[in-house]
Amino acid sequence: MSGSVKQQLFAPIVEIDRFADGLYRFALNAPFVAQHCAPGQFVNVKVAHENYPLLRRPLSIHDSDGIRRIDLVFRVVGEGTAILAERRVGDELDLIGPLGSPFRIIKDKRALLAGGGVGIPPIHFLFREIQRRELPHFVICGMRNKDEAALAGAIPYETEHYELCTDDGSLGRKGLAIDPLIEQLNAVDPASVAVYCCGPEPMLRAVIRLCNERGVECQVSFEQQMACGFGACIGCSIETKKGYQRVCTEGPVFSASDFE
Ligand code: FES
Hints:
Blueprint: E1 7-20, E2 23-29, H1 31-36, E3 42-46, E4 56-64, E5 69-75, H2 79-84, E6 92-99, E7 110-116, H3 120-132, E8 137-143, H4 155-158, E9 162-166, E10 173-174, H5 178-186, E11 193-198, H6 201-214, E12 217-221, E13 237-240, E14 243-246, E15 253-255
Bound molecules: FE2/S2 (inorganic) cluster (FES).
């Protein structure tokens, strides 16, 4: 898998799963993306056949079989994703990808993965890769309630080293994903682990602070509104210690040490 190539292509939808209110998983037949994507990367999807809405929507990759199939998970949050949710099996999606810089897997450190809400898909894809490489790991997924359990995908079936958290306690532990992450970090030498995180910005900021304070190596994946998706419009820039960086190009995965 590589993070350096992209294509615009038309990918037929082969399966749709509406697994919770407003949450969808689309499986696409997209061999080029499946063969070239890496965990943390995304595709930029044109939501409508017409030219409105104009902007594409960045959707992170939940899974890839490495051959032809990719899974995308998204939540309906506005007009664009609502239009996308009306697509049916057999429709073709106009997409560009794979885009963005992937997670860098640190081979000699135990991986602590933490995903929150629709930040779980890239963490799920990263888990599959870490599992494939048989690297030591622990995965934490935080979601609203048990109806969203499918966000965690294969994790509960393919490892014993995980914890699910829900806001309402209807599945797993009641509370936020950062609580078990703190417990995991309390139990280890900070130099022996690497944290990988994707979720809402308050979660990312809390994890960045936690890991920077403890000297833990950490990568975080930001979600941002995007226009072009490949570095041309600077509309997705965020402030880092190195100056403004484009989430779509220098990111979406950044080192926590790039932030205060
Ligand atoms: Fe255009 Fe990032 S979305 S530069």
